Amino acid sequence: MTQSASLAGDRCYFMLIADGHGGHDAVQSAAQWILPLIVQEARNGSGTELNRACVTSFRTLHEEICTSGTTSGSTLTVCCINASRQELHVWNVGDSLAVLVDADGHAPLGVSHRLGINPDEQSRLQALGVKLSRATTADGKEGGPLRAWPGGLAVTRAVGDADCMSYVIPAPVWSRCPVPPKGGALLACTDGVWDLLTADEAATILLKGEYDSARDAARQVVRKALSRGLVDDTTAVAMLFGPRLDDDDDTEGPLATKAAAVLESPEPPRRARGKSAELEVQVLPDLKDPDSDYV
């Protein structure tokens, strides 16, 4: 679920999070194949090329899953830090979203494709003639989230879902921003976390800095969510990265990672600057070695 790569000399660090539904086949395929597909497809580490590679790879993965005989599907969020260009990218389909946290506050990255909160998705499906309604109980009462029929999906961008191919698409939303020069953290969680925890609350946990690794930081986020009750899969992944180094610094590479790279802040995190299971977390290695494995 993580991979580092040198793309035409650019040092890039990837991580992903995926949340399956209707079986495990789609999510397992996503976890195994999406990062190798992107790295193989990308000709360099520019934002435009990475976006092209991701769009192509999401579509390739989607088609492979749909022709494999399974009807399962999965959300998919891929995060990339290009350390050479000081750029951060996130691509997502579904409702597993990311948030960038630094000493100045936090910025959610990604767009939820839940029908109930995404008017653009509602319009897209209505133009296709897809019926949108809530599930109906035996006594005729409607309840639960807004869903698309046939299939009853509440999230309508994903990889897989072969039985709903008439309206499910794997086209990811691309979010991007500069890497914070003073260091920070990139956190991605499944909807089971975000249904129980706000971005403000997750950012507060990270900004406190009361952990010694990315694994521990993300574990605290998950535990905070679970303290409010288990509703759905609660999975988090995180990258911690240190401050950008000056040109005359004697340490090689544009970033340096530390055990507690997320800076403590004397103030609570600011509100979002932009639009808005099992724990598996990785920490960026020392970026002076682009071929290092994550630890």
Textual characterization of the structure:
The structure is a single chain. With 295 residues, the protein is an alpha+beta fold. The protein has a domain at 114-154. It is built from six helices and twelve strands. The protein has helices at residues 25-41, 47-66, 119-127, 191-194, 199-208, 214-226, and strands at 2-7, 10-21, 73-82, 87-93, 97-102, 105-109, 131-136, 142-149, 159-160, 173-178, 184-189, 236-241. The radius of gyration is 19 Å and the shape is globular.
Looking at this protein, list some descriptive labels.
single chain, 295 residues, alpha+beta, 6-stranded antiparallel β-sheet, 4-stranded antiparallel β-sheet, 6 helices, 12 strands, globular, disordered C terminus
List the helices and strands and how they pair.
Layout: E1 2-7, E2 10-21, H1 25-41, H2 47-66, E3 73-82, E4 87-93, E5 97-102, E6 105-109, H3 119-127, E7 131-136, E8 142-149, E9 159-160, E10 173-178, E11 184-189, H4 191-194, H5 199-208, H6 214-226, E12 236-241
Antiparallel strand pairs: 1-2, 2-3, 3-4, 3-9, 4-10, 5-6, 5-11, 7-8, 11-12
Helix pairs in contact: 1-2
Summarize it:
By secondary structure, this protein is an alpha+beta fold.
Main structural class:
alpha+beta
Principal-axis shape:
globular
Can you give the helix content as a percent range? 10-25%
* Overall mean pLDDT: 84
Which regions have little confidence, pLDDT < 50, spanning 5+ residues?
Answer: 245-295
Calculate the terminal CA-CA distance, rounded to whole Å.
Answer: 12 Å
Quickly count the helices.
Answer: 6
What's the total count of β strands? 12
- Largest sheet, strands/sense/barrel: 6 strands, antiparallel
* Element-level helix/strand string: EEHHEEEEHEEEEEHHHE
Query: What would you report as the Rg, rounded to the nearest angstrom?
Result: 19 Å
Strand % is 25-35%
